[in-house]
């Protein structure tokens, strides 16, 4: 039996790394650049990249509204870094016109940990990921500034939430796709399987 | 090849004391290379002031390269080309939310120290500036800030990676608006990687000798079938079709130098090049974005440049 078809939004960012992680986690990764491609996936990954760039391209290639509709209809989505920003209700220190998909009841702060010279790696305990701590890579990463009651915090760095879940939406400020440890992707594949979306 | 320096990078905000979480490590190879992974599929644009930087960000650039003169002007005006004025770089950092890169001269590690202290997100040790050292590039492992370096072939790319470069770009021939050298460099690098992938292990040692690169890196490239870092293209990209051409030839992303702000309608051309880089395999999109862009930069034919005017020959 083949795994779920999980799309990766392929407008810009580290698509290849997510494809490898999803394959390892038992899913079939598919690049998504068009609405027709979006229609055929059981779940979606929003990769790391520049959130302003991806947001603008979502608008130009007319994916923003279809994506919002899919999220509202229950499509499971996992966003890392820029993907976390895109899933937020609002962003601090972003651009005023920066398009967001939304879905997670939270406000994120962009580049919250600082510039690239402040980017770092650290071990984190993540709720729902069994075994040893997750080695997390933060690159000009955001954090969650404010979260609604429905948002479950899965991990924190210095009090700030850096991994969250609300229903079948999952987001991390760090990049689990970069380390070769794909337990967070396995967690998402489980979310997709149990959601029954599109089946 | 060692992993980058670890922890204790003094002076970074990540080292806040009293964290409940484990020790944070800044400036590692993974953090440096990972930063470049996040730029993939994107366009990095040369800008000389805050206004241009805003135009680039509005157009969807993934980063800007702050420099005092675009390569076309360096060619036209001559003189020694150096790191930009810190005031100008700070102004650009303040103007945009996307990453800001800046250029240091080949071998000029103090310019790189200044750029790191300014908070730039990536340093380009660039042949477009006048080289400061004819023999030695910067030891890039000793920095927290990551570096991108130019290359014309695989051996050159691997020597830069051995020195700590976390991202490679084809050199092309900057400031010409002529894409042929970028094509040659990208094809050369890809062909040499392809050849390595076919070699039995015992032949990798002689291959490393020919490439003048560490055998560990040569073996890693043979195993991966690509560089261990992101490979962008640069040097002569002037149109959306140029950008899509380089993406189809295997580039992970595109640097555009003079091509945007030396053209008739920079904002529109910048948007078009961004969209062409994303949809590089879709001719219908390429037709649409290529229409009505106004004048492209006039450019210079590379074949008419005397050897002394070729930036790609700088470095080793």
Automatic annotation (TrEMBL), chain A:
What EC number(s) would the UniProt record show?
4.3.3.6, 3.5.1.2
Residues involved in L-glutamine binding = 49-51, 110, 139-140
Keyword Lyase in annotation = yes
- Quick check: keyword Hydrolase in the entry? yes
Q: Listed GO molecular functions?
A: glutaminase activity; pyridoxal 5'-phosphate synthase (glutamine hydrolysing) activity; transferase activity
Where does the record place the catalytic residues? 81 (nucleophile), 175 (charge relay system), 177 (charge relay system)
Instruction: Report the record's Gene Ontology biological process terms.
Output: L-glutamine catabolic process; pyridoxal phosphate biosynthetic process; pyridoxine metabolic process
Recorded catalytic activity of this chain's protein: aldehydo-D-ribose 5-phosphate + D-glyceraldehyde 3-phosphate + L-glutamine = pyridoxal 5'-phosphate + L-glutamate + phosphate + 3 H2O + H(+); L-glutamine + H2O = L-glutamate + NH4(+)
Q: Which Pfam families is this protein grouped with?
A: SNO
**Listed GO CC annotations:** cytosol; glutaminase complex
Q: What does this protein do?
A: Catalyzes the hydrolysis of glutamine to glutamate and ammonia as part of the biosynthesis of pyridoxal 5'-phosphate. The resulting ammonia molecule is channeled to the active site of PdxS.
Name the record gives this protein: Pyridoxal 5'-phosphate synthase subunit PdxT
Name its species: Frankia canadensis
